[in-house]
Design goal:
Layout lengths: L3 E4 L1 H8 L3 H13 L9 E2 L6 E5 L2 E8 L4 E9 L8
Parallel strand pairs: 1-5
Antiparallel strand pairs: 2-3, 3-4, 4-5
């Protein structure tokens, strides 16, 4: 059984500001990890989130095992995405 994916309003806005080709790579990667997300993400220190690497971009997400949900909090360039987490 695969996880459902939900994007926050912030993540949707982030995705709109990324060039179309990179945005497609990001959404494709999120779809690919739905069956077993923990094989692809890295746990972040100090916050209850995980990071998924897609080229120079990072997808910050909260993975809720109990309800099988991947909640995408933020998407951005690796230099800026970790600020204010």
């Amino acid at each position: 059984m695969s996880y459902a994916v939900e994007l926050s309003e912030t993540a949707k806005g982030n995705l709109r500001h990324i060039e179309q080709q990179s945005a497609k790579r990001i959404t494709d990667k999120i779809e690919r990890i739905r069956n077993n997300p923990f094989d692809y993400v890295k746990r972040l220190r100090g916050v209850p989130f995980y990071s998924l690497r897609v080229g120079d971009y990072r997808v910050i997400m909260d993975i809720r095992k109990g309800i099988m949900l991947i909640f995408v909090v933020r998407i951005g360039h690796r230099k800026e995405v970790y600020e204010e987490l």
